[in-house]
Specification:
alpha+beta; 434 Repressor (Amino-terminal Domain); Jelly Rolls; 2 domains; six-stranded antiparallel beta sheet; three-stranded antiparallel beta sheet; 5 helices; 24% helix
């Protein structure tokens, strides 16, 4: 039996992220008709379809079953999503859930000695604000080189994105990274 609540949650997440049915269909390789039927509770999606929808909306499958969505969220330190990249000697943790379709994406980056932020992260669309919490970084923007120390920050508007960010201190560097969507 189809689940009206599941469909309603999917629709709420999709619309809060300003994603159209057609865009979601393109991302999931599912039809707009099928997604619309899921959102209206007419059909029940398979686990594979749920996985595709969750990935496209950048949420976990479990979040699709949340019934009490609120206009606020908090994440406890030990519950934050943590991603580590040994190749770049870096890691980051999310500071807010994507469940609300937030307009900004705050992250806490940790760069080991010689660590850097992947180019894919730097190329994401939107404005970027970075503050050095601990350590020292070097970054390049518009072919200019800058060095920032603890307490320093920078802001890049829209298409003006940093091309490289690297830890140049002998210890771990911690950055507060906020990206608008």
């Amino acid at each position: 039996m189809p689940d009206m609540k599941l469909g309603s949650v999917i629709r709420n997440i999709r619309t809060s992220k300003k994603t159209t049915l057609q865009e979601l269909a393109n991302l999931t390789k599912l039809t707009t008709s099928f997604i619309s039927q899921v959102e209206r509770g007419i059909v029940s999606p398979s686990i594979d379809s749920l996985r595709k929808i969750a990935e496209a909306l950048n949420v976990s499958i479990g979040e699709l079953f949340e019934e009490n969505l609120k206009d606020f969220t908090f994440i406890r330190k030990n519950k934050a999503l943590k991603v580590t990249d040994k190749e770049t000697k870096s890691s980051y943790e999310t500071l807010v859930s994507d469940l609300l379709g937030v307009e900004m994406k705050p992250l806490l980056f940790r760069l080991q000695k010689g660590g850097k932020i992947k180019k894919e992260v730097l190329l994401e669309q939107g404005d970027t604000f970075v503050m050095v919490i601990e350590g020292e970084i070097e970054f390049f923007c518009e072919e200019e080189r800058f060095t920032l120390n603890k307490g320093d920050s920078f802001y890049c508007k829209g298409r003006k994105r940093p091309q490289k960010i690297a830890n140049i201190s002998n210890e771990e560097t911690v950055l507060l990274w906020i990206k608008s969507r």
